[in-house]
Amino acid sequence: MSSNVMAIPNVQVGSGTWLEILHGWVTTVDHKRLGILYILYALIFLVVGGIEAMIMRIQLIRPHNDFVSPQVFNRMFTMHGTTMIFFVAMPLLFGFANYLVPLMIGARDMAFPRLNSFSFWLTALGGFLLYFSFLGGSGLYGTGNAPDVGWWSYAPLGAQAFSPGHSSDYWTLALLASGFGSIGTAINLIATILCMRCPGMKLGRMPLLPWLYLVMAGMVLIALTPLSAAQIMLLIDRYLGGHFFDTQAGGSAVLWMHFFWIFGHPEVYILIIPSFAFLSEIVPVFSRKPIFGYPVMVGAAVCIAFVSMSVWAHHIFTIGMSSYANAFFTITSMTVGVPTGIKIFNWLATMWGGRIQFKTPMLFCIGFLFQFLIAGLTGIMLAAAPFDWQLSLSYFVVAHFHYVIVGGILFSVFGAFYYWYPKMTGRMLSERLGKWHFWLFLIGFHLTFDTMHFPGLLGMPRRIYTYEPGRGWDTMNLIITYGALIQAMAILIFVWNLVGSYFKGTKAGNDPWDAWTLEWSVSSPPPAYNFATIPVVESRRPLWDLKHPEDPDSRYE
Amino acid sequence: MSTIATPLTSRPQAWVLPDRGKVAMASLIIAESAIFTIFVVAYLFYVGKSLTGPTPREVLEVPIFFTICLLSSSITIHYAGKFLEHGKHGAFLILWLLTIVLGGLFIFGTGLEWHRLIYERGLSISTNLFGTTYYSLVGLHAFHVTVGLIMLSLVAVFALAGRVGAEQSWRVEVLSMYWHFVDAVWVVVFTVVYIVGR
Fold this sequence. Notes:
Radius of gyration of chain B: 22 Å
Structural class of chain B: mainly alpha
Distance between the termini of chain B: 71 Å
Strand content of chain A: under 5%
Low-confidence stretches of chain B: 1-9
Order of helices and strands of chain A: HHHHHHHHHHHHHHHH
CATH class of chain B: Mainly Alpha
Order of helices and strands of chain B: HHHHHH
Oligomer: heterodimer
CATH architecture of chain A: Up-down Bundle
Mean pLDDT of chain B: 92
Helix content of chain A: 55-70%
Number of domains of chain A: 1
CATH superfamily of chain B: Cytochrome c oxidase, subunit III, four-helix bundle
Shape of chain B: elongated
Mean pLDDT of chain A: 93
Largest interface: A-B, 63 and 43 residues
Distance between the termini of chain A: 28 Å
CATH superfamily of chain A: Cytochrome c oxidase-like, subunit I domain
Largest sheet of chain A: none
Number of strands of chain A: 0
Largest sheet of chain B: none
Low-confidence stretches of chain A: none
Number of domains of chain B: 1
CATH topology of chain B: Four Helix Bundle (Hemerythrin (Met), subunit A)
């Protein structure tokens, strides 16, 4: 412990006034503080997006309900989708990347600390712009405030004629700002991972988390930029009288769909690959075994990244493409299942024969495995063009992608919270509350999203604000709303746990999980400079080597 | 726990990692290429789809002189970097300023062409689909040239103040990568707008 702490002369370490602390956080360029800022920012929006979801669910609890007006309902689903993808999932995953990647590769900070801070505040500006639309969106026209054209804002609905006022402009500008922020962070991550590794950490010795974030950042560069380009075109249409998506001047509404989904589908993998990263760190530690098939895990992630760039049109089978295009996108979409399946088998093989500890992080990871598998299976169903013609834009699709995003991504993020919270704060999260959180959330999740497949199969379209009684949807919608309430309770327990454990949790120490990667070699929370002496590594599990000098990993690699 | 460095003493002999500036610039270039790809795809998709005139064949004139200016600036900036690396400050400064002049000429040429199109041919960004795609693609490129010129001028100011020496050449190299990219994009834009699209 002693030699890990560096005494810096003439520097007063300690808390100042509230203003000084606030100033310190706002002007920080430290990757750990920025990581925490990203995460807190995302958690606030998680609650906001959750409230929007609850408003929709209460509206749909029974037929002919009038809890909110149709206009408000449209705003809710637009804001819910945009918020959850761009201002919850992305900042959460970038927050963990910011915090963990430099620690895991033995670096003292990201490659470009000021770019890092700039990217965070751009993302923050994006979220602010999106929600400012509630106040400023109506502009001079009195035409409704927040954006209400769906999170993909299909042309021509996004055009000036059909969304007057400024609501769509706030949506566009919010996505542009956060998009540039994401590109900045992605560039920073790539430069950090390639150029800042500690001596001995070859790419083949890097933990899987930085590896998968490298893949994810590469995807951000290629897949997020088409969205920014399309948003610029939309701005040209709306402000300069351009005709990109104006069918009356020869423009094409379908082109917007393509541009949006060239971003939209890889985005799913941009979000899920960090989830894979969390699992690849958590599952081995709680199975007490090294990860099974390390090179294959890396290869599969790269493979997913490549294939996922050519599957976007499976979102728009219903617009009527040629049979060749349909066949192509069906086949590529199904192909993604292969490397993903390899990953699932590798996690199972990691657990196989291990001494599994069912701590809360591991519970969430096991939940992920089951749910992500089911989400993948409904994904394969929807990838078949004829099946998709029947069920596209129905609640079956809503159930499918919530299975991916909630059952997959959110579960793994919860696992990551329980796993790395001790490192970030120095205190353990309560296991008892964690188990309550897990089981309540699991029950609520399955009540909501298992049930949601069936109204979809029975023909309930997505984005309707109410429905007629007697179509067989009534009871199911009631169950779905109750499930959502249970999930909300679980989230409250989670927030309670986060806040309470910060003050009263048991002290974590450096290495509460007996783990193997470098972040556990420093104190919790780590000092500002991370490592007093830059570590040198000789295997994929440097802390194993340290704890077991008689049988180090480096002997076998 | 004691320090992690103790048991693992054998520091690898040559631990050389790529330069972060170059890696970051390469990443930025990949991202920018994706943005340009989308605009190029939109341009090609809309070739000949305008419902009203003027058409590209009627109004566009191939800017051969200004294209030569921009492309040759890639050569001057390359040799400027080489001279800086070898500490020949005078030659560096002359070639660097020449690069700025050539880039500036190109922007001037774009301005001339736009002025002619707008005031003589009546083609603005809202006139028809061709106008929309033309001004956004060429404008996006011109914006990148402008950003490049601002950064080149910054370096020139520092160089005139005598602050840019051979030890800064790796930084100048990063900027030079960006400038080469901007030139390479012009080759694509030129081909698409003035050859394929006409």
